[in-house]
Design a protein that fits this description.
Isopropylmalate Dehydrogenase; 44% helix; globular; 12 helices; alpha/beta
């Protein structure tokens, strides 16, 4: 069991926890026996949920009744003390008892408590929140998605390096193309920070980083770029717009196919294609944002996802550790 990847799990964060989290662990374990779970939360509740569903050699439960609530501000969460499930799970990676930490809890609290406990990677000034997005050809890494509203050109260069390392960790056989999210593709477009970053990345020679210039919002899903970089304000707006558009398309299609007899017949005739379409836009497949820039990666599962979505974020944890993410960042910094 010594070779297993040790994942510290905040079992009490997010909607429907701890049941959703434990069901996600059980579901994940069925297809992957490479992980060992250090589960932080209410032992009585967790034990009933996990009892006899996973061999005891693959998990342990660290009891605490104190939790960070979704309504807590980051400051309130930090003041609750060091016995919340979120704090203890992060502290577990700080003490090198776990390799990586995951929580579906309060995002702001997770970022603050992570920064209080974990050191920054040397020469990185700010951590970034990154996530996977689907595109026509596969997947893209997008960052920052809201951790830093204002960024310098150095921050954006750092995000480019970290995003490339993350993509390479998750997809080791591919070499990522990196682009800056901007209002145009011409070199003169954008604010001074973007232009300065463009120049720095153009001149930078770095392993695993192929700079492709600017990318506009309507090109995000084309698949020609694998790592998309922006400040947290722009990235968060892009994320929410993409999520809203995907929901709109799915709901409109559902209404059109169920609205009348012709639509229902059409949906039956195209059921295979519709299933593929639904799966492609299923947000559970892309669950697991990564707080990157700290000396240990912190994974944030969406609070509203179900057990399948949480299981997918555990796969992200596994790939990050197997792909030696932190080492890759250090090499390129």
């Amino acid at each position: 069991m010594t070779d297993l990847i040790k994942i510290a799990v905040d079992a009490m964060g997010g909607d429907g926890s701890p049941k959703k989290v434990i069901d996600g662990i059980i579901y994940n374990h069925k297809s992957n026996q490479e992980n060992y779970f250090k589960i932080f939360g209410d032992k009585n509740r967790i034990s009933k949920l996990i009892n006899n569903k996973i061999d005891k050699g693959f998990y342990e439960i660290i009891h605490t009744e104190n939790t960070v609530k979704s309504t807590d501000s980051p400051l309130e969460a930090a003041k609750k003390g060091k016995d919340t499930s979120m704090w203890l799970s992060i502290e577990s990676v700080k003490k090198k008892e776990s390799d990586i930490v995951i929580s579906a809890g309060n995002t702001g609290a997770l970022l603050v408590i992570s920064k209080l406990n974990l050191k920054m990677i040397e020469n990185i000034d700010k951590p970034a929140l990154s996530a996977l997005w689907p595109n026509k050809k596969g997947m893209s890494v997008v960052l920052d998605l809201g951790a830093n509203i204002e960024c310098s050109s150095k921050n954006l260069v750092d995000f480019s390096i970290m995003g490339s390392a993350l993509y390479k960790s998750l997809y080791p056989k591919e070499n990522p193309n990196v682009a800056l999210l901007n209002i145009g593709s011409e070199e003169l477009k954008g604010n001074e920070t973007i232009k300065e970053t463009f120049q720095k990345l153009n001149e930078k020679k770095s392993k695993n980083l192929n700079f492709s210039g600017y990318i506009e919002g309507n090109q995000l899903m084309d698949g020609d770029v694998n790592v998309i970089v922006s400040d947290g304000f722009t990235g968060n707006v892009a994320l929410k717009t993409a999520e809203g558009t995907a929901n709109f398309i799915t709901n409109e299609l559902k209404q059109a196919l169920n609205g009348n007899l012709l639509g229902k017949i059409s949906s039956l005739l195209n059921i295979s294609n519709l299933r593929k379409f639904k799966k492609r836009l299923d947000p559970r497949l892309y669950n697991g944002a990564i707080f990157i820039g700290l000396d240990t990666p912190v994974v944030k599962s969406h609070g509203g996802t179900d057990y399948i979505g949480f299981s997918n974020s555990l796969d992200v944890c596994n790939k990050i550790i197997k792909g030696n993410l932190i080492d890759k960042i250090n090499e390129n910094i």
